[in-house]
Amino acid sequence: MPKTRRPSAAHERAGAKTHSTRPNAAPAKPKASAKQAKAQAVAKAKAVAPDVPALLGSTPATPFRGNPDIFGRLVEDHDRHRALLAMIDATHGKSPERKRLFKELVLEIKGHAAAEEQALWSSVMRHPATTEDARHAVGEHKEMDKLLADLAARDMASSGWLRRFAKVRDEYLHHIREEEQEQFVAAEKQLAAADIRYMRQVFNRRKREEKASAKVEKKIRLKD
């Protein structure tokens, strides 16, 4: 999403291949249970507005939830975003909670998407078998950026805002489900285990930087 291009995980890993020889890759952490990982992600969302319920319900099955690698880390953020979306749904009008939760959602998605592109997709794109998956994911990030900017420019108390929010919510939920169940599965096959663990470190560092510099942009789309 950000226009400024930053060094990718591929550059930081000095061109790591499918078979990694990186000596300093962090050792694998124990895998958390899927239930525990999801609960931790929801708790982070709840910290933004403790009094707003996070009626998340069931989440799509994925083999990565709780994993100590880049894919587990990305799913953790996805669950956090699912909770934020559910909490926004539970708010009303221009309430302080809706404003606060929406701002957090925008900054979260912006930071997450930029870091994901740098830590994962920049490397995955180099493999012919997954080039199209990477391009598809990045393209959807850019589209989501536009949808969020449109929402931010509109009156939160209007019924039109709620209708548009529902569309954005459904689009984003589709995007992250597709990543978890299809694109991550394909990407994992192209990467060495040590690289996948190291990408988590890159993602964490990049996300902190990207989220800190992200802003809520406002721009109404001409097409509905």
From TrEMBL:
Residues 1-39 are annotated as: Disordered. Residues 25-39 have a biased composition (Low complexity). It comes from the Bacteria. InterPro entries: Hemerythrin-like. CDD domains: Hr-like. Gene3D superfamilies: nmb1532 protein domain like (1.20.120.520). Residues 73-184 form the Hemerythrin-like domain. PANTHER family: HHE DOMAIN PROTEIN (AFU_ORTHOLOGUE AFUA_4G00730) (PTHR35585). This is Hemerythrin HHE cation-binding protein. It comes from Ottowia oryzae.
